[in-house]
Structures are given as C-alpha cells and as structure tokens.
Amino acid sequence: MSGWYSTDAPVGGAVIPCTAWWCSGRSRGEATTDSDLAVAVAVVCDPFAPSRQEENIALRQVGWAVDTRIEPFALHTDDFGKPYFALPQEVEREGFEV
C-alpha cells in the first residue's frame, strides 16, 4: 500500500513517506507452536532520518504504539537493486505486499 504515515512522537511529528509495506515470514500464517508471535513489516520508504538505525527506532516506536509484536524495519527503494543485500530479496521472495 503506497501512502504517507503521520506520527507524533517518533520523528517529531514528521510524515514518513512510504512507497510499500511488506509482511513476511510468520505473518503469512506459517506460525507453529514454537514460533514467536512477532509480525515483521518491511516499510519501503525514502530516507527520513540521519541514519538507518534512527529510522528503525522511529518505526519501532510507531509499531509498538499499536502492538509490541509488530516489528517494522526500514528498507529504501534502492536497496532492492543491491545484489549483496539479502534482506530486500528475502522480503520480495518470502513476503507479501499489503
């Protein structure tokens, strides 16, 4: 889903521009009794903070405000073209866009 997500606390009331949201892994209904209950959410966005770590902290604060099992992480559009960065490839292969 493309769009904009507005948040108050994590990034000082800024708007985070998102081009896509992806869920992966157990979010597809593959959980077993041994699985944790986390929902991994890849947020495809333009850089919006000085570092990727700060972006992920802001996204986690937004996710945790909804449910602590939500584990969002930032991916930038150009990450999908990097052949040695496996995470975006895994998201495309194993996840689904919401």
Q: What can you tell me about this protein's structure?
A:
Mean pLDDT is 77; it is low at 1-11. The chain has 98 residues and is α+β, with helices and mostly antiparallel strands. It has helices at residues 52-66, 86-94, and strands spanning 3-6, 15-24, 39-45, 70-76, 96-97. It has a single domain, classed as Beta Polymerase, domain 2. It contains 2 helices and 5 strands. The longest helix has 15 residues, at 52-66. Strands 1, 2, 3, 4 and 5 form a 5-stranded mixed β-sheet that branches.
Secondary structure elements and pairings:
Elements: E1 3-6, E2 15-24, E3 39-45, H1 52-66, E4 70-76, H2 86-94, E5 96-97
Parallel strand pairs: 3-4
Antiparallel strand pairs: 1-2, 2-3, 2-5
Key traits:
single chain, 98 residues, alpha+beta, Beta Polymerase, domain 2, five-stranded mixed sheet, 5 strands, 31% strand, globular, disordered N terminus
